[in-house]
Amino acid sequence: MTNDLIHNDTVDTLLNRRSIRAFKPEAIDDNTIATLETVAQHAASSQFLNDWSAIRITDDNLKQKLAEIGHQQYIATAPLLYVFILDEHRNAAIARAKGVDTDSDEFTLNGSYRFAQAQNDAVLALHAMETAAYSLGLGCVILGSLLNDVASLIELMNLPEYTYPVLGLAIGKPDQEPAIKPRMPRTMQFFENTYPSDDDATLAPLAAFDKSVHEYYDLRHTDRPVDAFSDQIAHNATADMAGHAMGSHVAAQGFRLDR
């Protein structure tokens, strides 16, 4: 059974979302910046702790350093560039001013639950900003690549204790119009009441999805073949992730994920 989607401006903005990696060399005006930042502040926040922040990068030298970390030169060309961070530093300062001993074991803003929730809040704020940007005719790309070198990113951003980088977001007027990437069938991602116990049944549509992804990448990369989705998953399942381990960096920022 095929359902007809309901369309409006918001739904269509989200359905047409695609990553933009080429921007026109045009600055983003102050009113647009204020709008995007205010929209981000209206995203959901766990227990209203407001435990995220975003650093707007305007220094060209710093942009270039971030591009080098991300191994993506287009980062340096983004007219508007943010690094979103989870931020319990501000809340720790507030609590300290209220007489809380932030060095005691009673201090819990640095625990695993708060770390996870603050990270979620930062992602929600980024997504709100991204959606607003698309609705205004801008293009964006989310930058997980900035986490290639967390230690250097923390140093460049001068991130204090109880903060941690989450994602970057590059925004600008699009200078490309890539095709929309295919999505897997809903039956592979949406389940009812419980996680399915039959993997074979869940993966039944995988072959068709592999084919659509392969065709999508063939159109984008005519000079070289790109693996099907399932082959990409298999490759990443054994990829060396030692350089992306978070433990030591998280601990250095004052968080205790063991509690």
Please describe the structure with a list of short key phrases separated by commas or semicolons.
single chain, 259 residues, alpha+beta, NADH Oxidase, four-stranded antiparallel beta sheet, 10 helices, 4 strands
Task: Characterise this structure.
This protein is about 40% helix and about 10% strand. The model has no long low-confidence stretch (mean pLDDT about 95). The chain has a domain at about 10-180: NADH Oxidase (3-Layer(aba) Sandwich), CATH 3.40.109. Strands 1-2-4-3 form a four-stranded antiparallel β-sheet, sandwiched between helices. The radius of gyration is 21 Å and the shape is globular. It is of the alpha+beta class. The chain starts with 8 loop residues before the first helix and ends in a 7-residue tail after the last helix. Helix 2 (about 30-40) crosses helix 5. Belongs to the flavin oxidoreductase frp family. InterPro entries: Flavin_OxRdtase_Frp, Nitroreductase, Nitroreductase-like. This is NADPH-dependent oxidoreductase. GO terms for molecular function: oxidoreductase activity. Keywords: Flavoprotein, FMN, NADP, Oxidoreductase.
